[in-house]
Amino acid sequence: MEKLNAVITGVGGYVPEYVLNNEELSKMVDTNDEWIMTRIGVKERRILREEGLGTSYMSRKAARELMRKTKANPDDIDLVIVATSTPDYHFPSVASIICDKLGLKNAFAYDLQAACSGFLYAMETAANFIRSGRYKKAIIIGADKMSAMVDYTDRATCPIFGDGAAAFMIEPSTEELGILDGILRTDGKGLPFLHMKAGGSVCPPSYFTIDNKMHYIYQEGKTVFRYAVSNMSDVSAEVAQRNGLDKSNINWVVPHQANLRIIDAVARRLELPSEKMLVNIENYGNTSAASLPLCIWDNEKKLKKGDNIIFTAFGAGFTWGAIYVKWAYDSNE
Ligand code: UT7
Prior knowledge:
The protein has helices at residues 22-28, 33-39, 55-69, 94-102, 118-131, 207-211, 221-242, 260-269, 281-284, 291-299; strands spanning 5-14, 19-21, 44-46, 79-83, 108-112, 138-145, 163-173, 178-186, 194-196, 217-219, 252-255, 308-315, 319-326. The protein is α/β, with parallel strands linked by helices. It folds into two domains: 5-179, Thiolase/Chalcone synthase (Peroxisomal Thiolase, Chain A, domain 1); 180-326, Thiolase/Chalcone synthase (Peroxisomal Thiolase, Chain A, domain 1, 3-Layer(aba) Sandwich), CATH 3.40.47. It is globular. Bound molecules: oxa(dethia)-CoA.
């Protein structure tokens, strides 16, 4: 049997309408546009404000657009993976809600949690299902409603995050295109530096946990920053090197949009000019699992068939990795 590759055949995305800009944020906490722009690089972020709407709402909007653009028949979708840390409910999964809302009758579907690296893990996982030959059309979604766990009285974390969702279609091809290689890592050393203290099985919700603000993101930014720079750089360089990629033939890097200074550091390590780094942090902030596919959604028109792209991310856990993709189509939308 011919070797099958797993190819990205389309992208869809969705961001909420409401824009929370730095000026507005400066009225909520003691901060200012200059600090946020120089230390993080975020100008504004989107927030899903409407009551009763969660991650599945944004996911379904992104997946709908994806299905329209790829002219997919709902009956042909056989796998859905949603990477998220902010599911609508502890259970059931966002992915199961998507199947219902989009009328997917022949898919099996589940959520995957690897924080900001979630979409990379979903790419690698879906790629292996597709390479096996048993699955023909997989939708992977990265979606997070970070505003649901951001403390808008904490100036150290609230400027960073935003809400959004984006999705890829993954299909088999015998051409040498698609998700060609990846290095993914998890070490578990990140727990003390980046977590939510309560709401899980160790510390279920109670009046005490609410009174003590234990349902928000807790981050020791400086430590996370250091690990993010070195791990994203190392793994991107490794995946580039073992695929014969360097500054002469890497067309784009899609880095997790956590901090512009982290993105610049990764570019320096790969000796790439900033024009090769796809960046949209200024408009959306860190949308966690949505960050990588949203960046492609925003920049799809620039991509050409055969482009060499490195995706790289880092997140809570710690989790991190880099994936090499040879882009499979010229965008016509
Ligand atoms: O996506 C998951 C992975 N997460 C990340 O990659 C995040 C990595 N970390 C970071 O991006 C950065 O560490 C932060 C953006 C979170 C913080 O930047 P920093 O340069 O590490 O700042 P800092 O926390 O060391 O704070 C520097 C100063 C402090 O003041 P003093 O102690 O020097 O007087 C802070 O109180 O900046 C102050 N500060 C602020 N000032 C104005 C902290 N937040 C703000 C703010 N506005 N919003």
